[in-house]
Amino acid sequence: MTRLLPVLGLALAAALIPSVASAQRRIIIDPGHGGTDPGGTGNGLQEKNIVLDVATRFKSLLDTDTADTRGGGSWVALRTRTSDVFVSLSARAAYSNNQGADRFMSIHSNAFSNTSANGTETFAYAEGGTGAALRNLVQAEMIAAWGLTNRGNKTADFAVLRETAAPAVLHELAFITNATDAAKLGSATQRQKAAVAHLRAIQRHYGISPYLPSLAAVAPVDGAEAAEASDVATPAAGSIEQDESSSAAGCSSSTGSNGAIGALALLGLAFIRRRASRK
Ligand SMILES: [Zn+2]
User: Could you tell me the distance, in angstroms and rounded to a whole number, from the CA of residue 106 to the centre of ligand 1?
Assistant: First the structure.
C-alpha cells in the first residue's frame, strides 16, 4: 500500500497541473484593418484607429484583471496587431490558431453610404455554438454600455470567424458614418466603456461574476502584496510583447484579402444587411 502513495501523488499532480494551466484563458483580440487599410471612415474618424484603441484598452483590462487576484479571471491577452500596420485576414486567423487561442474576439466599426444607418451588432460564424454564446454576451454588454440601436446577434461567413479554430466573434461597435454613433466612437471615455463591456462579456462567458479590476487598490507600494502583484505582471507582459512581435509580419480587414476588396465587401455586406433589416 505505501508503495502506491508516491504514484497517487504523481497522479494527483498530473491531474492538478492541467487544471491550473487551463484556468488561464488565451484571448486573441483582433482590431480590424490597419496600415494601408483604414476600414470605414466618417465624421473625421478612421475605423483602424478606433478599433486598435478599444482593443488595447480591452487587453489592458484583461492584464489588470489577471494581476488583480481579488476577483475576475486570469487571462493571456494577445492582439493580432499592436500598431497601425496591415495584417491579412488569414494571418490573423493563423496567429490565433498558432497561439492556441481559447477565444477570438474581433473588433470593428460599421460604415454605410446612407449616414442614417446606425447601431451595434455582433457576429458569430454559426448559431448554437460557443461562439454564438459569447456573441450574445458581447452584444448585450455593448447595448448596455452605449445604448445605441440594437441591430442584433447575427451570423456571417467572415474569414476571421471561419478560419479560426477557437470560438470567435466579430463585433461592430457602431456606424462611423452616423453622427450620433460616431460621437461614441470618437470619445475616449466611451471607448473605455466599450472595453469594459468586452471584459464583462468574457468574464460572464466563463461564469465569472463581472469584476472591474484595479491595481491601484491592491496594496501600498512597500507592501508585500504590491511586490507579489508586480512579480505576476512583469513576466506576463514580457511574454505577450514577444508573442506579438513574432506575429507582426503576418495580419487586415474583416472581409477581404486586401484593403480595397475588404472595404468594398464591407459596403456590400452593409447593403445586404440594411436590405435585410428592412424586411
Ligand atoms: Zn471593419
Answer: 9
> Three cell numbers at 16?
492538478
Cell of 141: 454588454
Q: Name the CATH superfamily for 25-278.
A: Zn-dependent exopeptidases (3.40.630.40)
Rounded distance between C-alpha atoms, residue 106 and residue 134, angstroms: 12
For residue 219, report the distance from its CA to the centre of ligand 1, in Å.
40
What mean pLDDT do residues 4-17 have? 49
Q: What is the pLDDT of residues 51-87, one digit of tens each?
A: 999 999 999 999 999 999 999 999 999 999 999 999 9
> Would strands 168-175 and 120-124 be described as parallel, antiparallel, or unpaired?
antiparallel
Residue that the C-alpha cell 470560438 belongs to:
167
Confidence (pTM): 0.74
CA distance 73 to 232: 14
CA dihedral of residues 255, 261, 266, 269 (deg, nearest 10)? -90
Domain definitions of the chain by residue range: 25-278
Question: Ligand 1 mean position to 19 CA, how many Å?
Answer: 36
Cα of 259 vs centre of ligand 1, distance in Å, is 10
Residue 105 per-residue DSSP state? E
Task: Please tell me the predicted confidence (pLDDT) of residue 4.
Answer: 52
**Hey, is 220 helix, strand or coil?**
coil
Ligand 1 centroid from CA 155, angstroms: 15
Please name the residue ranges forming H helices in the chain: 4-22, 47-67, 89-98, 130-146, 159-162, 179-185, 188-205, 224-247, 259-278
Mean pLDDT of the 201-207 span: 98
User: What is d(CA 132, CA 154) in angstroms, rounded to the nearest whole number?
Assistant: 8
- Residues involved in catalysis: 172
CA distance 32 to 185: 14
